[in-house]
Write a structure and sequence with these properties.
Layout lengths: L2 H19 L5 E4 L4 E2 L8 E4 L3 E5 L2 H5 L4 E2 L3 E2 L12 E2 L9 E12 L2 E10 L2 H10 L12 H5 L8 E4 L17 E4 L1 H7 L8 H9 L1
Parallel strand pairs: 1-3
Antiparallel strand pairs: 2-6, 3-4, 4-7, 5-6, 8-9, 10-11
């Protein structure tokens, strides 16, 4: 794989993981080998790897970090996971059906780091119920219809968004049908581009602009 192709794939992966993990940043860059092919210029920003991320609130914080910054960014092995402030979230294959509530609690001991994270579990039953009871499975943000575009075989390929983030809910909180919204995958990812998520009306305004 040439460098340009890898850079494109890494950019797409960075955006996907930012949405999945709720990284609050204006710019994210992904790498799985400790070398990022471009620098950070918009803050807050984050460097992302397969298991978590390192966020910089300001450019000053970024410049003072123990990383090599030139035309590219390089971090010595074992990578950003060994740096203070690293947030371990999950493996890169984690399902978006899990909301990360407490990102990390870390204890440094030499070259080892003990990281724990708490996840809130979504009940797939409530998602199926929402789809079965909804008057329409068109996206409530942009109006996209899987049925119109792909036919009946993809009619329920929409996603279900929690209007109240699970991270804000009390343990064992009850979810009602009106607490859920039908959305397409694109709008769902945009909603979760930041933490806390965008309101649906915010994303509608983005589309209007």
């Amino acid at each position: 794989m040439d460098r340009r192709t890898k850079a494109t794939l890494n950019r797409d992966k960075a955006i996907r993981l930012q949405a999945q993990w709720g990284i609050d940043a204006r710019q994210v860059r992904y790498s799985d080998d400790g070398h990022w092919y471009a620098t950070l210029t918009r803050f807050p920003a984050a460097l992302v790897d397969a298991h978590g991320y390192l966020r910089f609130a300001t450019e000053r914080e970024y410049r003072r970090a123990p990383i090599s910054i030139g035309k590219q960014i390089s971090v010595r092995k074992p990578g950003i996971s060994a740096l203070a402030g690293y947030v371990q979230v999950s493996s890169s294959e984690q399902s978006v059906a899990l909301d990360v509530d407490i990102h990390s609690v870390a204890v440094n001991e030499g070259q080892r780091r003990l990281v724990q994270h708490l996840q809130r579990e979504r009940k797939r039953t409530i998602v199926r119920m929402k789809k079965s009871q909804a008057a329409s499975l068109d996206c409530e943000v942009c109006g996209f219809s899987f049925r119109r575009v792909y036919g009946t075989g993809a009619i329920d390929y929409c996603e279900v968004h929690h209007l109240v983030p699970l991270s804000e809910a009390d343990d064992g909180a009850r979810t009602r049908m009106e607490d859920l919204a039908i959305v397409c995958a694109n709008c769902h990812r945009v909603i979760h581009l930041r933490n806390p998520p965008y309101e649906m009306e915010d994303v509608r305004r983005m589309l209007g602009e």
